[in-house]
Amino acid sequence: MDAQQPRWLTDEEMQTWLALARVLIRLPAALDDQLQRDAGISHFEYQVLAMLSGAPERTLRMSALAVFAGGSASRLSHVAGRLERAGWVRRTPDPADGRGTLATLTDAGWEKIAATAPGHVETVRALVFDPLTRVQQRQLGDIGRRIARTVDPDGSDLDSFSG
So where does this one cross the membrane (predicted)? Predict the structure, then answer.
C-alpha cells in the first residue's frame, strides 16, 4: 500500500497559519482581560448574557444557549449557576418539554449587559476593526464565515442569530 503524503504547508501558508493561531490564542485572552477588569465577568459569561439579551423574550433553551455561546452543556450549567446566583439569569423547566431547561435574562441581567456592552464593543473595535480597512473588514467576515462552515457544516447558524 502506498501511503498518501501529507500536504505540507508552504512557507506562506505556514506564516498565515501562525498568524491565525496567534489571534486564536491572544484575542480571547484580551477580551477576557477587559471584561474581567471592567465588569467582573468572563468572555463566556458575557456571551451567555448577550445571547439571552437578543433572544425572543430574553429566553433560550439551555441546549441552544450552549451552542450559541460555544460551550459544553456542563460548562454552561456551571456558568448559568453563577449568573443565577448573581441575579442575572433565571432557569426554569421548559413547559413545552419538561426534560429541557430555559434560561431567561432577568432585568438585573439586562442592566448588567447594557452596562458592560459599551466597553466590550470598544475593545472589539480597537482590537479587530480599527486595524483593518473597510475592505479588509468585509474580507475578514467572508473568511470567518467560510472557515466556520467548514469547521461546523451541520452546526448552528450563528449568522442568523440577532443577538
Answer: none
The domains found in the chain, sorted by start residue, are 36-151 (1.10.10.10)
For 66-112, the pLDDT digits (tens) are 888 888 888 999 999 999 999 999 999 999 887 899 999 999 999 99
Can you tell me the distance from the alpha carbon of 97 to that of 64, in angstroms, rounded to the nearest whole number? Answer: 14
For residue range 100-148, what is the model confidence (pLDDT) as tens digits? Answer: 999 999 999 999 999 999 999 999 999 999 999 999 999 999 999 999 8
Give CA–CA dist 3/53, Å, rounded: 52
What is d(CA 86, CA 80) in angstroms, rounded to the nearest whole number? 10
**DSSP sequence for the chain:** --PPPP-PPPHHHHHHHHHHHHHHHHHHHHHHHHHHHHHS--HHHHHHHHHHHTSGGGEEEHHHHHHHHT--HHHHHHHHHHHHHTTSEEEEEETTEEEEEEEEE-HHHHHHHHHHHHHHHHHHIIIIITTS-HHHHHHHHHHHHHHHHHH-TTS--GGG---
